[in-house]
Each structure stands twice: as C-alpha cells, then as structure tokens.
User: What shape does this take?
Amino acid sequence: MTISGWLQIALVLIAVLLLAKPLGLYMARVFAGEPVWLSPVLCPVEAGFYALAGVRADKEQGWLAYAVSVLLFSLAGFIALYAMLRMQHVLPFNPLGFGPMAPDLAFNTAVSFVTNTNWQNYGGETTLSQFSQMAGLTVQNFLSAATGMAVAIAVTRAFMRSKVSELGNFWVDMTRATLYVLLPLAMLVTLAFIALGLPQSLDANVVATTLEGAQQTIATGPVASQEAIKQLGTNGGGFFNVNAAHPFENPSAFSNYLNIIAMLSVSLALVYAFGQLVGSRRQGWALIAVTLVLLTAGAGVVYWAETAGNPMLHAIGVDALPGNMEGKEVRFGQAMSALYTAVTTGLSNGGVNAMHSSLTPLGGLVPMFLIQLGEVLPGGIGSGLYGMIVFAILAVFVAGLMVGRTPEFLGKKIEAREMKLAMLAVLILPLTILGFTAVSAVAEFGISSITTPGPHGLSEILYAFTSAAGNNGSAFGGLSGNTSWYNTTLGIAMLLGRFAYIVPVLAIAGSLASKPRAEASSGSFPTDRPLFVGLLIGIILIMGGLQFFPALALGPIAEHFSMLAGQSF
Assistant: This one.
C-alpha cells in the first residue's frame, strides 16, 4: 500500500460526499412533489404518461396495493424482456444475425435485469443484438433502478407521516425517479463517457488490420449509454463479457474515476434525501457514516491483501513488489481496483474492473462478505436505503433491550410486528444463499461447473448464490453458470433476494405509517449520534455477516491458510 494509492481512494470518496447534499436535496424535492428546475420541461411529459396509463397521480396506495403494483410491474417487465431475448432473431437492429437465447438462459437473464441484479451467464458482444441491448437490458436498467427508488421513498414516507395507511403511489414514484433523476443523469454521464472514448454506435463489428497484417474483429455498439445507467442505477451488467475491465467500457483512469463516482452518487444521495424528508439531516449523515466506515474498511483490506501478494510466489523468489496483479488492469493499479471491488459489492452493482476470482483468498473474501452483509454500503439504488432501515430497526430494538425502553426510530415505536417482519427480511439472504450452495456443493450437476476443486471451488459456488440473492451480479469467473441448474436456481435466488425482501419491508412501512409519530424525549435513544453509528455497524456485522462465517471458513479462509502453508488446490 502507498500514500498515493490512499490519496486516489480519498479523492473519489470526497467527490461523492460533495455530491451527496445537492443531489440529495434535489431528489427530496422531486419525491415531495415540489417543483425543480426541470419541471417546466418534464411536467407535461409526466402528465402525459399518467394519462396514457390511466394513473391518477393524486390517488395514493396502502402498503399492500403498493407491493402488488411493484410485483405486477416487475412481472410485466420480465415477460417483455424474456420474449425479446427469445425472439431477437426476428427483431430489428441485429446486424450480426444472433439467434434466440436458450429458454433457461433467457429466464436467468430476464430475471437478472428485472431484479436489478444483472448477473450474466453469457458474453454480451457475442450473444445479444443491439436491439436486445438497448430496448431490453438498458430499459430494464432504468426501470429496475426506479422501482428500488420508489420502494425506498415509500418506506421513507412511513416515518414522515402519522396515523395514515397510505405510502404514496408506486406509478408516480417510479415515473418521477426515471424522468427527473435517472434519465437526466444518464444523459450527462453518457456524454462524458463518449468524450472519454466509449463507443456509441448501432454499427456491426469493425474489422481492423493489425500491425502483423492479420484481421481482427472489434465489437462495438451503444456502449456509453448502457454503461451510464449501468453505474447510476447500480445495475452492473456490462456490454462486454469482461465488463469494466474492457477498454471500450473503461478506457482510462479518468473513466474509472467516473465509473466509481457514478456508482456511488445516487445511492448515497438517496440516503441524504431520506434525512431531509424525515426532517433530520443528521440522521442521513449518520447512515452515510456507517456506509463509508465499512466501505473504506473493505477497500482497505482488499488493497492490503492484493499488495501483499501471494506468499507461494515469494517462496520461489518472484519479485513481490507489484503484489498480486493477476486479473487486474495496469491502467487502474491496485488501489483503484481495490476501491472498485469494494464499491461494486458494497452496492448491488456487480460491475468489475478486475477479476474477483483472481484476487487473493482474503481479497476475494471481502467482496463476498460485503454482499452477504445485505448490500447496504450504501447498497443498490433504493434497496440499500430500505435495507439499512431494516438494520436500523434491529439496532434500536437491541438498544431498547439494553436500556429497558420500548425502542423507537425517528419517533415510531418498534413493536413485535415490525421485529417479526424485519427478521423475516434479514433471514431471506442466508436461507437462499446457504441452501442453494449446500445442494450445489454436493450434487454432481453443481460441482461439475467449478474449475478449481477444494476451497476455491466452494468459494465459486458460494459467491454465485451470494451475488444472485444479494442482487449484485458479479461473479467468481471460474464457475460455468450457463447450465440448466445454475440458470434456474440463480434466477430463483434473484427473485427471492429482491421480492421476498421488498414485501416484508413494505409491510413494515405500512405498520409504521399507521402509528403516531412521537416527539423525541429525554429518554429517547438518539439515532443520529456516533454511539448509534457504532451500534448499527455492529448489528450489520453480526446479523448480516456472522451467519455466513462457517461457509467462509470452508472457502476463502481455508484457501488462505493453505496458501500460507505453500499448498495449492
């Protein structure tokens, strides 16, 4: 590790923090229904969408109706994308004549993009037409992100309101998230990416002649626009198979900086918007502090592990100075590869600029563990915020037990119903991840897909289901996931990780909205102070991560000690 490397990391985090307040205030105004500088242009467009869809913007929904709307909208998106992938051979903008996706792969891909996961069991440049990339994947990158934002705002309203049953209108929240937030930002970032060298074209592949006189086929397409919403919407699915390690997705150190800033900016600003909307900016900053402490720690461990390198190479006299550069791009280096790895898994982004399977065992443990924490650092766009609120509810419950008082969070009493629903939400991840991993690790149809036996092979399987259930989308690349078993089970894991979490969270919101909002008293436990930040970090680590320790001990931890002993698998 070097001072220069830490300065690079610090510059990115400072830039994101500087953006959090203005962008958060803007989003707070959008979701409060207040006019913003884009309103004169977008208000007529917004009203036109409501008229076409038959939506009454002034009619609000209770938690159950809101949840049904989320499920039905996502189901419609899945059906449309699945049909598009199966019929891309008869649809336009297919200059290379790609055929239809296989049914199980189309199921996996459609579920992946509708759930904001973007797991990819295929190579985009060799499988999908330009139409599928744009009208299918890029559209769902907007809509799945907007759905997560809408749910987060519905949960936020539960703390803003008192003795009501309504949480807002899903169709209005989703439309405003798309029109006022995601679309303008994506346009700006797309233009910046084009200026930095990313392609934006509907042409087929370009054939070039190399210096040796050979012919080389270079894939191109609408890369910049997909890359912009991929990062802003914490989607992560790349146009190219190697994602942001490809020079057309991420050509330089400058584009790498913009990638990470775009990833973090909206999710972190939404946390600030939460504080603004509930009337406590200090609460927003407290949650941001939790995020940055754990995220910086994760990046630091990866940075340390990768610069320390492989002791097996040290033993045979290989120069240890560069550290472990396998699977990394020289143009990014250790520090920015480490930060990208931590950010993409602390979020539910899933994009990569280095191959996670090539990380050292401890370096590879960190991104897996960050996903297992629930991806609340700051998590997926919207999903990270409502996930953090679930952990905050658990934290105030623990604090209430410690001081002998009924727990409260932002003036709302946390009682048995909220705790049961919170625990239901929190248990979804371990049940899904560990259950599918256990079966895949002993069945022939599961272990036949791994490339490395032993602890690393287990890590490949564990990472896959961790990524799917956590709606992340990154992978340990050694697993051959394009099989009927993995396409199906990973798709089910994505659905459970998204919607089996959203429904209890909205139920919590409905319960809290119906309660009176009490003013803080001298006996209230303050949730915007350093003491609560420390407690919340502890709850996230214990409730989110401790249950995975036995599996991690058999995978990356066992691999680490084997490496120290000079053994390989």
The beta strands are 61-62, 166-168, 206-209, 215-218, 408-409, 412-413.
